[in-house]
Every structure is written in structure tokens, then in C-alpha cells.
Amino acid sequence: MTRKFKTVDYEAALDQTVSLREALPANHLARFVVDVVAELDLARIYERYGPRGGEAYAPELLPALLSDGYAIGVFSSRKIEKATYETLPFRFVAGGLHPDHDTLANFRKTFRAEIKGLFVQVLLLAQAAGYLKLGNISMDGSKIHANASKSKAVSYKRLLELENRLRRMRSRRSRWPTHCAPRPARPSSACANAPSNR
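Request: output the structure for the sequence above.
Response:
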């Protein structure tokens, strides 16, 4: 008796039509982000756009992409741009558009203060919708043994020793004649009496 296997026809799979409505359930984070950004007050961002220039991305799109990225731990503009091509949630948030990383980075830099205010609004809406619970986070001061390299780890005492050693080396170097190199291959007669840095 031979075993039967389910096989994949990759050529046919490339021709499949994927519905984002089916792929992203109603409670998916990407849908929530789009709904929340639609509720935000973006008037301060709209005010800063001038009447001239090329067609810009709508201010709703870029904060939505940044919010979705931040929520899942994607902070890099390049990774967010790449995700608009490769992952369904980002494709949904971007609405099939693909803002490049420069556009995302410039938006983040230009509207830094406004974005901070928008994130506060997002958190408040998330809390009101029940997606977020705000509370206290506590940390203790427990010491945990780590397997760190002793040759790379430096104690405060050792750091002070190294600093003093560097200061002594600098003071020796300041006494060298100005026309001598730190370690001449052949000391000239003028440099023969210069102190070594050892």
C-alpha cells in the first residue's frame, strides 16, 4: 500500500486571487489601526502641507503604517516599505500603495511632535475600545547571574585604572618633540632622547 500526499501546484497558487477581507479577520490589528487613524484629528498635519507640489500621500496613510509597524515591532522605514509589498496586513493598511522609506522617514522627522500627539490619541481610543488595559508596571532589582565574557566586561574600578593609564600616555605624548613621529622607524639624533610610549 502506498501513501498518498497532498501536493502543491505553485504555478496555480501564483494565479490565486486573495481577498484581504477573507485574509484579515474583523478583529485583526491592521483593521483596528485603520479604524483608529480614521478617528484621529489630523488637522495640524493637513495645515503644514502647502498648496503646491506633487501629489502627496494622504496624511491618514503614513501614521497608519507607522502605528501598525510600531504595534508589531517593525520600526525601520525600509522594513515598513518592504512589508507593503510582502505582507497582507501592511498591504491593507497601505491600501495597495507603497510609500518609499524616504517618504516614511521624512514624515516621521517632519511631524515628530504631531505623531507623539497622535499616538496618545491612538492609546486612548484603544483603551476605550477595550484593546488596551493601562496599569502599573513594576520591576525589581534582582541580580541575575549572566554568562558574560570576563575579557569584555569592565568593572568600574578597572575602568578608572584604564582612564588613568590613558591620561599618563597622553601626558607622555605631549612631551615629545613636535617633529618626531610617535614611533619613528629610525630615531634621528634630535629624537633619540624622546621618551617611548611604553
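The chain has a mean pLDDT of 82.
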